[in-house]
Amino acid sequence: MDTAYGYGPQTRPHGMPAALRAPIEGRTWREFLHLLLNLPLAIVMFVYAVATTSLGVGLLVTFLGVPVLAAALAGARGLGSLERARARALLRLDVAAPEPVRPRRGGLMPLIGAVLKSGASWRHLLYCVLHFPWAVFAFCVSLVLWVNAWGMFLYPLWHWTFPRFMDQPGMQLYGSEDGRDRFYLDSPFEVAVTSGAGLLLVLATPWVIRGFAQVDRTMVAGLLGPSRLVTRVTELESDRGVVIDTAAADLRRIERDLHDGAQARLVALAMDLGLAKEKLLEDPEAAARMVDEAHGEVKIALQELRDLARGIHPAILTDRGLGPALSALAARCTVPVTVTAELPTRPAPAIEGIAYFTVSELLQNISKHSEATAASVDVWRAEGRIMVQVTDNGLGGATASVAARDGSGGGGIGLSGLAERLDAVDGLLVVDSPPGTGTTVTAELPWRAQPSSSPRRLGPSSGS
């Protein structure tokens, strides 16, 4: 099978259950170390934030308060960089740096103003303050749980230290100061029960630690990363780049098809008609044959131009909508395809076009690579989204991360290219393709209705 459908990485199942594996996993120890480091670093950040902010606010009666506050915010951003690096190393959380401070012009005062206006800087300062009480709580609880859990679990190995070095039979569970009513864990049964209770704590403590670490992840991602608005702008800029690259690639494809196909054929046709014109008086029969051949070339050129126009935007899609266009597309597929389109109204032309070409690319993949004997295309609307699902009974094993590389060196853009195109319009591509059981590719697009000037409805359409 060709590489339009690729195989994803295989995961090796663990022989030990997760509950038994958690206390000895590297993740647990990394997160526990992160919680232990929280306290000293949180103390430094809290003291810094409170001291510098108080100093800056106190000096606001003079001009010195403004640069002091700006310096406090700049220092908080530096501490935030340290926290992001620590989260990346110990929590395996990769948080992007927030948007940099960009003054509109050079100079010290514009820079100070930009720092004070930066929401990311104030979020860093807020993190320095809010993280302190949480760090104290998480440090105390996780350390007490960890030490007591392992201490109780390993009690049979070290309970002998009490009679030898402390002059008591075992660990004291309770008792009065005057020495009466004291209870020691010294009998074999009591030692075993203590170790069993410690084992339960050992198994439970990693999940408490992971819960605490998740709170840290939330605080780092929410306060030390870029804002949602900046993230959305970055995504839109990336999507715009994908759209521009896709449009440029389509234009190059159209230019290549015109140059290698219809244009070359029309040039040859013009030369043949020129020769026929020269032979018209000398050899009318030969000229008639050449004109007849030229007529055949014209028909082929017209068919190539129709195919090219259909590849740009098929007329049936504009005139009749997505259901009939997909039925016509399925009729040209080498594999029998059943099409079902249930849309209450027609979506916007751009969404129709993307859905059409998504199905076209998937059917090409099925024809070339899947070795399927049947396929189906289903289109419906669900909760403000248009859903497109293409299923085949072929070899399976497809992944959305592998691009198409067919033998001709051209053609399809592959599943990865489809995923990028859909992502550019806030769409989504999901591939479900267990090896040997066929492939189901689901594309999800935002529903955008036709303009009010085009109120045509699209009823259910099915064909094969």
| Fraction of residues in β-strands | 5-15%
Q: How many domains in all?
A: 3
Give, in spatial order, the strands making up the sheet with the most strands.
6-7-5-4-3-8
Look at the helices and sheets and give the structural class: alpha+beta
Instruction: Give me the number of helical elements.
Output: 14
Task: Kindly state the percentage of residues in helix.
Answer: 55-70%
The rounded distance between the terminal residues' Cα atoms is: 25 Å
Could you give a short account of the major beta sheet?
6 strands, mixed
Shape label: elongated
User: Cα-atom Rg, whole angstroms?
Assistant: 35 Å
List the helices and strands in order.
HHHHHHHEEHHHHHEHEEHEEE
Average pLDDT score: 79
Count every beta strand, where a strand is a DSSP E run of 2 or more residues: 8
Could you name the ranges where pLDDT drops below 50 across 5 or more consecutive residues? Answer: 1-13, 402-412, 453-464
